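Subgroup meeting minutes
Present: P.N., E.W., G.H.
Scribe: E.W.

1. P.N. recapped why we're keeping a running log of single-chain structure predictions: easier to compare across weeks, and new members can see raw inputs and outputs side by side.
2. G.H. added today's entry (361 aa).
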Amino acid sequence: MTRATPPWDRLKDLAAKRRDAEAQRLSAAVRTRDDAEKRLAMLVSYRADYHDRLSTASRGGIDLEALRNYQAFLAQNGVTLELVPSHGAVENLARLKEGKADAAFVQGGLAASDADTDTDPAIVSLGALYYEPVWVFTRAPSPPARQLHDLIGHRIAVGEEGSGTRALAVQLLRSVGVGPKDATLSPKGNNEASAALLRGDVDAAIFVSGISAPVIRELIRGQDVRLVSIVHSTALARQHEYLSPITVARGLADVQADLPDHDITTVAVTANLLVRSDLHPALMYLLLDAASEINGRLNTRSGDAPLGTESVSQFRFGAQVKASGLRFDTAAIIGIGKFSPRSGFTFGVTYESPAFFPIAK
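Output recorded in log:
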């Protein structure tokens, strides 16, 4: 005869099973939470790294807001634009040539100085977007520098490795006789260069950026820095066709504060929109439309890379009709370039005569 298990024993066993099951669920939940925290930490770290690198690259050229505007403009047309962070224009050009990017913003002069550009048909320019002046700042306590040549023997922040600022700064210094052996060239750029200049860690700093850039406005207002003119701007522009001599007018940054307090002569380069030549023509047109809407274009015929046939200065819409041996051509013209007519209209008539002599059979 089998002895019945007391009810409390059954309850005890059932409670133990439930306890073990809940313990397993709790352990699994803890492991899931730990994994989630690790993934979250990795995502936060990646986001911070991505944002920092992207912000650093954009401060010296096209700003982050404009890049997002490009994304939004293309998204409206069903195209997804992926922003790839970089250290500057030199890296942008390299990625474009290697096929790691389809389009890039590249500082004027970099493509022209590349020995392979003239023979490499892989890159075309869609035009110049805006000018970027060269700014040279020195510390006020230092001996006054009236030109680039006076920076011999000093510590100069010339921009990060891979940046367009560094490439241009080194070339300008070399043009006036200041080589790597004549001065200490520090690989600092943007905010890092500005902070080093204000602390006295460097004697001078060179930037390539618009006057609206926060780092430029901060230094122009600084009490311990001076803005130096590039007195040979015209001569340098004739030696290097991608340079343009410009004058920063007195008070341009702040008329009321009279900043700068005198005219500054310097040189400027253009920021160019380059694409790979194998990019679909429809995407080229779309990028041109985005550039026109967001940045405007200085001149679609500018740029130091070979221009693509898609970079036109006019849009033409027309029709052709044939009737009774006559061909009627009509077209409307809309200018999109700096030197193009704003609008226009053309009309033509062509008479197609029969052959004077029959074609021999």
